[in-house]
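Researcher: Last one for today. Full complex below.
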Amino acid sequence: MKPAPFTYHDPTTIDELVGLMGSLEDVKLLAGGQSLMPMLNLRLAQPDHLIDLNTVAGLSAVDPTDVGLHIGAMVRQADLMKNDAILTNMPIMIEALHWVGHFQTRTRGTIGGSMSHLDPAAELPAVALLYDAELTVNGPEGSRAVPMREWPIAYMMPNLAEDEVLTGIDFRYWNEPHGYAFEEFARRYGDFAMVAVGALLAVEDGVIRRAAVAIAGNQPTPQRLDDVEAALVGQAASGETFQNAAELASQIEGMSDSYTDGRYRQRLAGVMTKRALTRAAARAEGGS
Amino acid sequence: MDTYVGSSVLRSEDPRLLTGNGRYIDDIVLPNMVHAAFVRSEHAHARINGVDADTARSMPGVVAVMTLDDLGEPYNTKRTEQPYPSPAFKQDITIYPLARDEVCFVGEPIAVVFADSRYTAEDAAAMVRVDYEPLPAMVDVAAALDDDAPLAHADSPDNLIATLSIGFGDVDGAFANAPHVLSESFRQHRGGCHAMECRGVIASVDPAHGGLTMYSSTQSPYLVRSVVARYLGEDEHNLRVIAPDVGGGFGPKAGVYPEEIVLPLAARMLSRPVKWVEDRREHFLATNQQGDQVWSLEVAADDDGTIRGVRGRVIGDAGAYTNYGLLLPMTSVIPLPGPYAIPAIDVKVDVAFTNTPTKCPVRGAGRPTAAYAMERMIEVIARNLDLDPADVRARNFVRADQFPYQPGHTMVTGASVTYDSGDFHGCLDMAKGVADYANFSLRQEAARAEGRYVGIGVSSYIEDTGMGPYEGATVRVEPSGAIQILAGTASQGQGHATVFSQIVADQLGVAFEDVTYQSADTALFPLGVGTLASRTVVAVSTAVHEAAAQVRDKAIALTAQVLEAAEADLEVAGGRVFVKGSPDRGMTLGNLATQLAPFNTGAVPMGFTPGLEATSYNVTRGPATASGSHICEVEVDIETGEITLIKYSVAHDCGRMLNPQLVEGQVLGGVVHGIGNALFERMHYDESGQPLSVNYGEYFLPLAAEMPPIEIAHQETLSPLNPMGVKGAGEGGTLPAANAVIAAIENALKPFGVVVNDYPVDPERICELLDEALAGGAVPGG
Amino acid sequence: MADTRRINLTVNGESHEGEVETRMHLADFLRQSAGLTGTHLGCEHGVCGACTVLVDGEAVRACLMLAVQANETSVTTIEGLAEDGELHPVQRAFQEQHGLQCGFCTPGMVMSLAAYIDENPSPDERDIREAISGNICRCTGYQGIVAAGLQAAVEIRGGG
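Model: Here's the assembly. Have a good evening.
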């Protein structure tokens, strides 16, 4: 189980990186390597060229913006978990990151890698959906912004041309007080989610004023649950409301694979939705 | 006198292993060594019309590419040896070292590349073109004996390998007029061993005498020597087999594999050392696994739960080849009576080929499936007669005053199955105490009041440990006073060096630190069997104990002669033999060894043989019967099907514990392996026989976060069959675990009437069962 | 023609310089080029954790990092954990709590726990169990390892 031969490139600037991507055929980009390296070792991926993003300057910063936070694509998952701005303003990301692999993989794994690999069960894309994050993509024509809702195109296929690379993600904070919860069901701690649901809820006087609910694992791509959110806003933050929301969530057809029937994923979608909303509401009312 | 035996001496193995100084097969590098990569079948079943290795051969760094033809006569038409011949075989088809013209499972070796690095070898292996003609694949063993079943071997008449049976007593009489005849069908699946170190082989020709030296990550270097020597046509003295540090065994490493034939042949052909280390994907494909058994059993019982008889049928998966003999099916039915006094049993097992990896024992061999089968009978009785499952067990246990107990059938050796000792009731009571079984119903009620479903499951077992025929050991005192133990069996982490040194240190009155232990090298000790079937502590400790006692006697005799003292007046302690009450009048063991050493005064004292040493072989007198009861407490989330293990309680009896901490380690590992079988581990295959679980993201081994606290209580009923009263402990933890877990789940879901039966069971299946129960009219809380 | 690079890194305090094939992962570099065979390969796809080493103080899977990526880093392997012949508290606790049997997963377990306790010196049992869930052990049933982790943490934070 050793990688097939490739030519290794270690550009130091985004321009150099983009130039390489434009000039080479059959390229894979190496971010944290926690998904690509196994595929290389197993020879499931045998690119002619491997471009290492770890040497590219300017991709590893977390910077405050007027409305939130800009996170460089190469920021490690472990560093996100230690970031005070995230802890204060987007604690759901840290809760979600606890479900991402293990601490020994989060030291290498990056947010950009997770977003670009776009495993249907991945947690970080679901978090990005919750915040309607905006992704910055660089290519030969310069950079462009992609709204998170337009990022997943199909199963493990992000909205990226072959000569483009994700360089950063912008998150806009929720200004109103709100609660949050990220619920996941996996076979074992650290496994890929069978279904994960993240929820943000702003509750005022017992009434839900704003809601964001995103789901991973039960579809080929992560989804925002617009119908569920519509059914929440304006309603009492009550068990009945959450049960209704859960039933809506469990009506979305689940994805089947060799190991799991889609109907089970649907069931989990409902349960995880209910639990995430219940916990988020409790936090919202707990005065956060 | 027992300073060390019976106490939890810290392992002498550990400082080395903890600092990166282990020497596992992949750590060994020989001069001029080349590296192998195998080309393996991509099909579960296919004819091979040709292999084109020209491109691979021409690649830089490639030393050779070999197919079966390239191995030359007689090997090019010769299947591997059957290590375990049996008259019961209707068909006995062993694997070729490299496929000849048919492949019968995905991963079967077809060709091998030798190159200057594993990287290059894999590059070249990828360029070997195999011309396959796919054939229908036999995948699900449940259908293997159907009339229209695809043939796992194209030229076989059918897929049946053998039919074995266990029978004694008047079964028809037992079932006639029985108040209750209950039945249960269940499918048992046990995956692979998944030792964290994969297999590996190094072979080299010793230029000094032309013999072969092999290193193999094996549980039995002697089995490798025997099988490989026979296949190669070499004398055994020409084949030295060494097991270096071995990173776990668990059964499949007690087999002999094609790679262990190909590598020594290639070493001769290339006149260079050759190395192959299995990678994890190969381990999933090509290392033997335990596979499936499909059981249908009936039990006849009285109103009070007393079992009158058991009968039924089993279909057992043998995989693609017979290289593990019939050990797995035999160990699946012979132990069937378990701890219970059952008057009559009649169970037949049909063993069938499938186009999946060869099946073999994994931790416990067939015993865990036999135990599960009988425990299922207890459960079905308890469920239908509304009895406490623990009470049904106690009612049927062999009583402590019945030993030696003979159920009425025979072992593979032809000897009557005999339980030597035990106290099954005592163990069950201990387990109930550890689990606070008496108060469980209160916990269950309290949980139900909160809408939570908790359950408890009991499971009991016995294990025949210390399988024969023998093991031996040499104990030698060196002139320095250091003590050396030499033995045959290889360790895969059980702590042999520590435990056997404890015994010798006590026998010779020396410090534990002064004893060293070496083993697993056929040139170091001439004869041995191997570390399998929970046998080593029984077989080797007895030999070590006897050899040490002989050395002690010799030391006393020599001291008596030199000091002109009476033997009865002498005492051995502190590394010296001295006159009781006059510690100054004595000799050190080193002095005595010097008297018998070659470079001494020249004369061996009159009446003594050279060397302060002794060799002893222990010929096993019959299995020492280990036993125990486990109790598992779980919570089931009826929304997700998630199973949370709350607590796991063990009471076990492995006779005298030489080192309690190491015994606990064996039990803990065994329990978690059994939990893995019950809840996590499944080899998935698609209809064409392609394995769908070939990495650790797809095959779930038990991890730390999901394991419950495990509490162990020990009962020590000494075996009368060996001088220290020991019984094996390596596998007992696994035997009852699956039923303890499954029964606990069923107990938690009793309000729904859910019966699980098949394992592994996962949360998705739990939800299906719940849905079926609710659709069938079950009323939760009822 | 193999794609190679010259790299220079510090392993257990010693400088290692050499030409490596760029496709070689760090674990193979440590084992084959640096001769440090204590770092084990149990799966080579990043799940079993046997190859866990510290790169610039952080626990990583050495099979999921190319050797060339470790250029100019400082790597600590199991061989470098004991200082001046004195076992690290995690190593000592493993022996005292019987946290190892065959020893194959042990280097990765020990390195993981050493790194984890370094960051979280007051773990409870749940924390330790989660921390080692990225490491597979087939022998011990984990209980001795968990006990070892808890014992070592007490010692490391000076409570014991």
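The first helix of chain A runs from residue 14 to 23. The two ends of chain A are 49 Å apart (CA to CA).
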